[in-house]
Write a structure and sequence with these properties.
The protein is mostly beta strands. Helix content is about 10%, strand content about 50%. It has helices at about 20-25, 75-80, and strands spanning about 5-10, 15-20, 25-30, 35-40, 40-50, 55-60, 65-70, 95, 100-105, 115, 120-125, 130-135, 140-145, 150, 155-160. β4 and β5 form a beta hairpin.
Length: about 160
């Protein structure tokens, strides 16, 4: 299986590369951060001006042009595909059914204040009980389901404010 990388240049151009494409790049180091690159018989001078290895963000100078480069590896792409995020937490206001099932318990009512991790309701799906918890501290705005009700995947269960 090839490793894939998604590269975003200046926050607007997206490119995808496979590991073998990167390994076959003709780049010769000139110094610690400077390289000579040959691509399709064209010569380039490249310099890594600034690097943030942990966040995979780089400032690269190619010939006389400077580019901001963000690199996403396979794990980053999988996390993005799953709708999750590392670092930039999104404000979750809606609790939706992760799968079709039967509501066994509703542990909150409208107007209740909940803390992150509090049990909101129990959903039975595929003969397993799944406790859905509060993703953040919030106040319950509305509840769209009741005990004994069947729900579909992605059906709105609870709104929070």
């Amino acid at each position: 299986m090839d490793k894939n990388y998604k590269v975003k240049v200046n926050s607007d151009v997206e490119l995808e590369f496979k590991l073998d494409e990167i390994q076959n790049l003709d780049a010769q180091p000139l110094s610690h951060q400077r390289y000579h690159v040959l691509k399709e018989n064209t010569s380039f001078k490249a310099e890594v001006v600034q690097s943030d290895f942990l966040n995979r963000k780089y400032t690269v100078k190619i010939n006389s042009n400077t580019y901001e480069v963000d690199i996403a590896n396979e794990l980053d792409l999988l996390i993005e595909e799953m709708g999750l995020s590392l670092g930039n937490a999104q404000m979750v206001n809606d609790i939706k059914a992760p799968m079709p099932g039967l509501i066994l318990e509703v542990n909150v009512k409208e107007g209740d204040e909940v803390k992150e991790g509090d049990y909101l309701l129990v959903l039975e799906a595929m003969k397993m009980e799944n406790a859905l918890t509060a993703p953040r501290d919030a106040v319950i705005k509305s509840i769209s389901v009741e005990k004994g009700q069947t729900v579909e995947k992605n059906q709105l269960l609870i709104e929070m404010e």
